[in-house]
Write a structure and sequence with these properties.
Blueprint lengths: L1 H36 L5 H8 L4 H16 L6 H37 L11 H7 L4 H10 L5 H10 L4 H28 L2 H30 L1
Helix pairs in contact: 1-2, 1-3, 3-4, 4-7, 4-8, 5-6, 5-7, 6-7, 6-8, 6-9, 8-9
Pfam families: VTT_dom
Main location: membrane
InterPro entries: TMEM64 (IPR015414), VTT_dom (IPR032816)
Length: 225
Amino acid sequence: MEKKKIRWALIIIGVLLMLFVGYRLYIEYQPDIHLFFDPKASRQELMDSIRSHGLSAAVILIIMISLMCAIPGIPTSVVGVIVGLSYGPFLGTLINVLGNTLGNILSIFLMQHLSLFDQSKKENRWVKAIRHMRHPKIGVMIGYMVPIIPSSLINFAAITLNLRIREILLSILIGVIPSSLLYACGGEALFHGNHKTALLLVASVLILTVLVVVIYKDRRKHQVN
């Protein structure tokens, strides 16, 4: 019961922090919003304004992604696309990777040091699939790559596997790159109205979804053997 209270208290604190950071983000992007709704503003003017954001906005976005990633059930895709829209595919990917990595590290740190394990998660299909793989380390890495799997479940699986800190960090870094790149490129596609890029993104989502099948197949082979 005490652990439940601590979990809810942390979630509430996280949401409040996220609202505060969201307000700072709104202040940062307020000129862009005004230009977007201004019928007299040209597209070029709007594009220049969107790409004018510097280090302060990048830091706010990294903090926002980290908080969203650490709080269970909150997707980071919308902010990830905004990052790509503002900074392009290369810097955008870097910002997304940093935010997602820090968020997952924070989540794992809280789980480990505050003993916030929800033992019922051991019966979750994704956690069980990863834990019963022939190569569970690869399963953790793949889990971070697949957007439809909540990162909190992957973090839980990583902890229960007793992986070393270096192994967890490597899995997170490699695992979050594909989705981070996907969102950044999505923002870039919106910025330029590039339909070819949009099609590539759809293909990328399909590839990432196929990875889910890999998890189950590997699990079945391990069970058979």
